[in-house]
Amino acid sequence: MRVLAIDTSNLVLSVAVVEEERVLAEMTTNQQKNHSIRLMDCISGLLDATDTLPEQLSGLGVAKGPGSYTGVRIGVATAKSMAWSLNLPVVGISSLQAVAMNAAGFPGLIVPLFDARRGQVYSGCYRTDGMQSVRLRENEAIILLQEWLPYLREQAQGDPILFLGEDVRLHREAIVQGLGEQAHFATPAQNHPRAAHIGFLAMRRLQEGKNAHELVPEYLQLAEAEAKWLAKKQEGSAKE
């Protein structure tokens, strides 16, 4: 069983080909956010490097968000197009869970987060599951960090809390002020999502994988332009 995995949901671009217990190839960059230009070349290069023909794939895994609206759409649209053309199942994996997988084995709470501006973060709360995976303890959400930290302290019940994600550096001071020595921080290499993790998570769920038309992104909130449009529409309806 061979799976192609894609993550373009944030600044990092990561693509991998995995097979059962092996990572056959993986490429991850954290430089320029030009995923729409580079993604297909990355996919083609990894398939060539692993001597994988598209029809040899068993399915696809893709980061479905939350994250950058444009980034999420690029990855999901690409995975859906390939799945549809090859008649393969495609599995959407949480972008936050992909980061949390870097900390599988940690003995406390695992908290991946992405900055959502205005003091908010996209985040979730995970625990190690069998040393090789993580399980969600609380639904992922967009939340004010100042509200999230005391909740995490309560849920941890004295256990350490590990924060992961490229954007943690933006909130590190507030996290330390809120949690003190209970807060732990990942190494820089652990802050980046790996498509290989997405591939292995997707492989376990291929039987329940959706067809290409059913997979939808998970933004956790409306795009700003859409929110403004809906607000204007509601305001116009109220005046009628």
Description:
The protein is α/β, with parallel strands linked by helices and 240 residues long. The protein folds into 2 domains: 2-94 and 193-224, ATPase, nucleotide binding domain (Nucleotidyltransferase, domain 5); 96-191, Nucleotidyltransferase, domain 5, CATH 3.30.420. The chain is 37% helix and 28% strand. The chain has 7 helices and 10 strands. It has helices spanning 35-49, 69-86, 95-100, 145-156, 168-179, 195-204, 224-239, and strands at 2-7, 13-19, 22-29, 59-63, 90-93, 109-117, 120-129, 133-144, 161-164, 183-185. The strands form 2 sheets. Strands 3-2-1-4-5 form a 5-stranded mixed beta sheet, sandwiched between helices. A 5-stranded mixed beta sheet has the order 8-7-6-9-10. Strand 2 and strand 3 (22-29) form a beta hairpin. Helix 1 (35-49) crosses helix 2 and helix 4 packs across helix 5. The protein is globular and about 50 Å long.
Secondary-structure map:
Layout: E1 2-7, E2 13-19, E3 22-29, H1 35-49, E4 59-63, H2 69-86, E5 90-93, H3 95-100, E6 109-117, E7 120-129, E8 133-144, H4 145-156, E9 161-164, H5 168-179, E10 183-185, H6 195-204, H7 224-239
Parallel strand pairs: 1-4, 4-5, 6-9, 9-10
Antiparallel strand pairs: 1-2, 2-3, 6-7, 7-8
